[in-house]
Amino acid sequence: MIRLPLTSILVTGLIIGCLGGAGCATLPGAAPHTQSAVAQTPPSHTSPTTAPRYTPIVVAAEPEAAEAGMAVLKRGGTAADAAVAVQTVLGLVEPQSSGLGGGSFMLYYDAKTGQITDYNGRETAPAAATPDMFIGADGKPLAFRDAVVSGRATGVPGAMHMLDRAQREHGNQDWASLFTTAESLADNGFTVTRRLGNYLQNVDFPQKHTPDFVAYLGDGKGGYRKTGDTIKNPAYAETLRAFAKQRGEVFRSGPIAEAIVAKTHDAPLPGGMTMADLKTYSVKATTTQPYSTAGDYQNRAVCITYRIYIVCSNNAPSGGIALLQGLKIAESQPIGQWGVHDPRAWQALIETERLMYADRDQYVADTDLFRSQSNAYLDPAYLKARADLIRIGQANLPPKAGVLPMKVAMDQTIEPGGTTHFVIRDSYGNVVSMTTTVESFFGTGRMVGGFFLNNQLTDFSFSPSTADGLPIANSVAGGKHPRSSMAPVIVFDATGKTVVAAVGSPGGTSILSYNLKVLFGILDWGLPMQDAINLPNVVSRGDSIRIEQGRMEPAVWDGLVAMGYKLTPVSGEESGLNGILKKSDGSFDGGSDPRREGVVVK
Fold this sequence. Notes:
Elements: H1 12-18, E1 57-60, H2 63-74, H3 79-93, E2 103-110, E3 115-121, H4 144-147, H5 159-170, H6 180-188, E4 190-191, H7 194-202, H8 211-217, E5 230-231, H9 234-246, H10 255-264, H11 275-279, E6 284-288, E7 302-306, E8 309-313, H12 320-330, H13 335-338, H14 343-363, H15 368-372, H16 374-377, H17 380-387, E9 418-425, E10 431-439, E11 447-448, E12 451-452, E13 489-492, E14 499-504, H18 511-524, H19 529-534, E15 538-541, E16 544-548, H20 554-562, E17 568-570, E18 578-582, E19 588-592, E20 599-601
Parallel strand pairs: 16-17
Antiparallel strand pairs: 1-9, 1-20, 2-3, 2-10, 3-6, 4-5, 7-8, 8-13, 9-10, 11-12, 13-14, 14-18, 15-16, 18-19
């Protein structure tokens, strides 16, 4: 019998119908999705969506950020309000991962309406961007170390625009009040954490040698700040005060917007961003019911049934649609029956990841072609054919991408892990699951207004096509979002009306592996969120299989080797999983990745 957590409210008929594995029927009563019709500037400071009656919880990568979010919740704010406070503190104390100059994907669950909104605050390429802009004078793709610090690497920032819109639509607090903690820390100083100090002292990366980086994080003696040092950032505080007064307009016009454009035009390799690009940036947002799991996946948050649950994530160009494809492939295997101690369950994870990445790397992109074929990507017959390729008990050969009606080539884009994730549940039952990033560590290393600019455009393929002329879906184009691996998740019970869990992770392309592991842990193996996060990370992509050997049970490792797998042991992965999970008594507990410095605050 499959081991299942006691965390969800179960519908008896669906339990019986879904425990058999693949092919859980579409839930009865599924409603068609609806396009969000909320204006860009609806009235702010709306009343709470329901009466306060839940214990709030915040899980974030840094204690100061989590506490800032909780302070907002304790004074009656919503999850959307708290998200602003969390992000602005993270952008200050964890600048290697996210910031005001970056982008984000957010899932927002509104407890009153029962709807989820897919917010796409991903950066966009300037209108002047061309498919060959990362091709050098020699006709070859630029070296990543050169591209990542270039003016061409920066996309139009979207995270703050996204938070502006989400807070207008779901917040109840005065917008300006949400910046006070971050302002205070910037004015009075914050302490360099162990993880930030490690990057500054022990890790080499191109951004470390840019003038702005040295001026801000250098120690004035030829070295860099260290763990325990105090850093003040008055420019960041001034930028926050501007946001407090002007909201997202700060990034559309005025001195900060002008400075962003000017900084991207600096050598080396200046970019083509203009003020018009900043002025015309638009957040994409679509709203649907979690139980709308059937039909058109083209323009909304994606929700699928997985055993006795409904799992939702953001649509393309996020990694959410690929993650959910992975779950549907895995559903054919009795992972829960095997249990967490069985090598066969971990083999299922390995092979699911390989199939998931093969399709994702070839097909997923911010293109009309992919959107038009998104139903085919999650078609039950297609997924069954992919799942049937898994042979349990012996090592499988790395799979190729499946055959879909899209004539595009495989993309090998590098995606570093300069990202963070946080989860919030407020006292009204609303939930935020948000992954946010400046792309590589410290973005481009170029600063404006006390924050780093993103290098998000390096998430595009540097080459627009293969040598034989086959186009690559994730190629550069003006106004296009680069493909992302970010995949915020919210899990519902079988009715789609009760939140069971929310989770997500940073980690570049490995985000999908990290999230998939945790979903196996909580949904198949019945583990508490923290125990699921603590499980060894397994990243299987093509012929590479990386496993945290120190966290893996020896019997499982040996069992995989006996199957014929060549495993690469690693001592640590750049996951930063944060999540919440409903317990049997109806309350929520959280978990935070010990590989970083996250905390659970209740």
